[in-house]
Specification:
By secondary structure, the protein is α/β, with parallel strands linked by helices. It contains five helices and six strands. The strands form two sheets. A four-stranded parallel beta sheet has the order 5-2-1-6, covered by helices on one side. A two-stranded antiparallel sheet has the order 3-4.
Length: about 150
């Protein structure tokens, strides 16, 4: 008799918010795209054996030192972020240098958001990302585990 293997599919009830882990990522001197892809994997839960594409199995991620993240090449002056107000002719644009000077957390937030799937699940996942410009964060009570990124 032939044995059949079963594919594990996670259920949303198996991953309540109270049991999710917290991960601390230090962005000091790291390249934006490389760190954003690792953060997106942790948010989705792709670093776990229980990963299921349609279920949120990931952890919360706290990013510190967002103001010290690096961009390679000439991206600081050539990469442009667009924002539309909704009114005709009100397309706003800013370079990465301008965005970093105004709100450095937005660079990491938008990079990670672009690496998540474009659906309802991604809007749920991005709420678990907490980005801070400096080294202090208010999530010490959650005892986040530190992840070293290269």
């Amino acid at each position: 008799m032939k044995q059949s293997m079963k594919t594990y599919s996670a259920k949303p009830a198996e991953f309540p918010v109270a049991k999710r882990g917290w991960t601390l990522v230090d962005a000091d001197g790291k390249v934006l795209g490389r760190i954003a892809s690792k953060i997106a994997d942790i948010l989705r839960g792709k670093n776990r054996p229980t990963f299921t594409p349609h279920v949120d199995t990931g952890d919360f991620v706290v990013v510190i030192n967002a103001d010290k993240v690096k961009l390679t090449g000439a991206k600081l002056d050539q990469k442009i972020y667009y924002n539309h107000t909704g009114f005709f002719g009100h397309l706003k644009s800013a370079t990465a240098r301008e965005v970093m000077a105004k709100n450095s957390a937005k660079l990491i937030y938008e990079a990670v958001e672009g690496m998540l799937p474009k659906n309802r699940l991604s809007r749920q996942l991005i709420k678990k990302l907490k980005v801070y410009a400096g080294p202090q964060h208010p999530h010490a009570a959650q005892q986040p585990s530190t992840v070293e990124m290269r």
